[in-house]
Amino acid sequence: MQTAIRQINPRKLLKLPYNSSSPQNYLLAPARASHYTWRDKPDNHPPTMSLVILANVCSHLQNASKARLGLTSVPSTNMILTLSLALQASGFLSSVTRGGLTPPPLDALSTYVPEPVTQENISTRRLWLGMKYYNNEPVLSSMGMVSKPTKRIWMDVDGLGRIVKGKEAGFVKGLTRPGECLFVSTDRGVMEARDCVERKVGGMLLCRVL
Amino acid sequence: MSVSRPARCLLSVPSIPRLHPRLGPRTFHTTPKLAERRRPRYTSIKASDPALIEAQRKAKVEQARETFKAYTAEEKEFLAKQYTPEQLAAIEAGEKAIDPVDLDARGVIRSDWGSLTYVDDFATRRPFVDKKASAFEGPVDPNARLMTLEEMSLADAEYEWNIIQQNPQEKDFPFDDPVRRAEARPSRTDLLKSFDEVPITVGSHGPISPKHQSIVAPMLPIGIEAAVDGTGKQVGDEEADVRDPDGVYDLLRRQTGLTLDQIFEYRVKILVQHRVVNQTRLGKIQSLYCLAICGNGEGRLGIGEAKGQETEDAMKNARIQAIKNMKPIPRYENRTIYGEVEGKVSAVEVKLMSRPPGFGLRCQHLIFEMARAAGIQDLAARVPRSRNKMNTVKATYQALMKQRIPDEIARGLGKKLVDVRKVYYGGRV
After folding, report:
1. Which of A137, A176, A179 lies nearest to residue B413, judging by beta carbons?
2. Closest to B408 (Cβ–Cβ): which among A132, A135, A177?
3. Cis preceding-peptide flag for B100 (omega within 30 of 0)
4. Which GO terms describe its molecular function (chain B) (predicted)?
């Protein structure tokens, strides 16, 4: 039985060629065909990896704030990187740096040039995020998921507009607290909900930050 | 059988009266029983005995005279050789002023535990043994301020000039000679002395010498210690006010400096009131719990809690505590709160929501009262879980204090923030 399964090739079952170069088969494309990007996807969405890592990052940043850490690290993935940059643009983080398992030099966080990502070091890459504090309070005090790994929520501009105005839209609570932000994964990258409304783009709701 | 007692015949009557412990019914209070045998504090003296007391007193006087003898004529003669007549008169007056009996009773060298290990009459202060005398005890000048740099340098110059005037030096003083240099005035010692003597503060009547000034808190208002410990003089009206004949607010007025007018202007209300019971081994002890709120209608709010046997006492104390605990709460446009806030005390969760002008206070009665006292006009609230009255009030207070101010958030984020309402209405909201 075991040997039988091993002999069955899934590609043969799906009747797909081994070296597929057609965009429709990007999911099963072999690793070396790396010239496919998410732009080749029919709906132009970035590759939506599991949200579990994002959920862990949310909890981790909350914990780091409560522990008053100055610098903390999260896994380095494209989604986390774009989200971190959006958080920095919104003022929740002081710095975003890609580094290894040890933190980059603290005195040169902004000028630090990270070593290029290669196949050898990609598994050890981490994003080092600088946390912010003001008036003895963390600037980023709570961060929670809106989409869940088992239930993703997409929203159009109208819905986002309602949320930004503080109203409820599609079971998503509005941004009613002062300073509250909602981050949305769109085809133009991860953006804040207010920016999305301004640029008239919708997307997947990632997390809300306070 | 005890060894110390001799054996007695069983039939003989004991010569020592048997000890009968006076055991009555047990009382549940600490007051001594009236029926108990009284033991007078002093040995009782019969009316015929005063002579005995008089004799004792006379013996004391004699003993004192024996110890502290008056000057004899010879001794006085000898003294007259040593002292002037005025000094002699002073000595005699002193002798007459001090009663030898007193001297005998008081003028003894102490040997008790509190006594010192050395002989001292405390007439002089010895800097290494004695504690430093307190700098100043009188009233504090409210207008006192630190000198400016020019004034300080002037005071220093004046101090030095006085020293130079008092210690004239020859014109060609050899300052280069290290031995003679030490003799030059003002010297190093003068400099050290100047720290204690040159004033650095100015009051209403000119510079204040450091000797007459509280180093701890030079700007402290007059009589604040007396007001705090409650023993001092009453601030404000001396006689009782008609509105407060029992002096309920006297201590509060002294402690806070509030006037009765201000106190009566506050919106004080008792929101929660219920009996609580303490179970002791003597039974249940009931008392009344009160929770009062106090607001000035202009953004200050306080909560006061008190317990007491008497209803009136508990209510009074709760009100006073509420007045004392008043703190400013942030208000948006002096009418509502900033955004949405949540408070949680025990199982009570309170969610307060800001609302547009004219919305009113659409919330339950406890939150309504608090908002009215604090001067909030537009507010919505939800109490989704438990609705315990006491915890609802506490959670509401917590939520009101927890508000995040947009300006501070903007500074934390490093963003520029503009209130659109103010921009749109040209600052007329």
Report:
1. A179
2. A135
3. no
4. RNA binding; structural constituent of ribosome
